[in-house]
Amino acid sequence: MTSSTNTEKWKFAINKASEAVWAPGLREIFEYRDLGWKDSSNGDYVAHIVKANGKEMSDEVQEWHVHDCTFQFVMVLNGWAEFEYEGEGVRRIEKGDCLNQRPGIPHREIACSKDFEVLEIVAPANFETRIVSAPAEAAE
């Protein structure tokens, strides 16, 4: 291949489960394991595992919001969650399920199990999350 791409500057990375570091992140009810993609892809992607930590509280993600990103892949590793998506209604995702959450789709979390755990891959790595108004067809 002779064409130049952004991926030519990516670095090789491996993230060993035996050396996993769990840290606080966007939401207080979850712990996050960064898988090293942000640095290795020069900020093109972020990949992390997100798991429930036993805390129970409401937060902004339970309000309608959007992620300012160009790609968002989610695979449920354990447990379940219910989300509501504009134009798609309420959807329950369970262990083994994957979704391509299209960029900019307004959504909200309704509930999740105490053992909820997902792999999430997002581009770009430094995406923003914004609170938005509920769509007209939103469930109460």
Identify the notable features of this structure and list them briefly:
single chain, 140 residues, mainly beta, five-stranded antiparallel β-sheet, three-stranded antiparallel β-sheet, 10 strands, 40% strand
Question: Total helix count?
Answer: 1
Order of helices and strands: EHEEEEEEEEE
Strand arrangement, largest sheet? Answer: 1-2-9-4-7
Overall pLDDT score = 90
Tell me roughly what share of residues is in helical segments: under 10%
Q: Mind telling me the C-alpha Rg?
A: 16 Å
Describe the 3D structure:
This protein has 140 residues and is mainly beta. The chain has one domain (22-131): Jelly Rolls, CATH 2.60.120.10. Helix content is 3%, strand content 40%. The protein has a 5-stranded antiparallel sheet. A 3-stranded antiparallel sheet has the order 6-5-8, with no helix packed on it. The protein is globular.
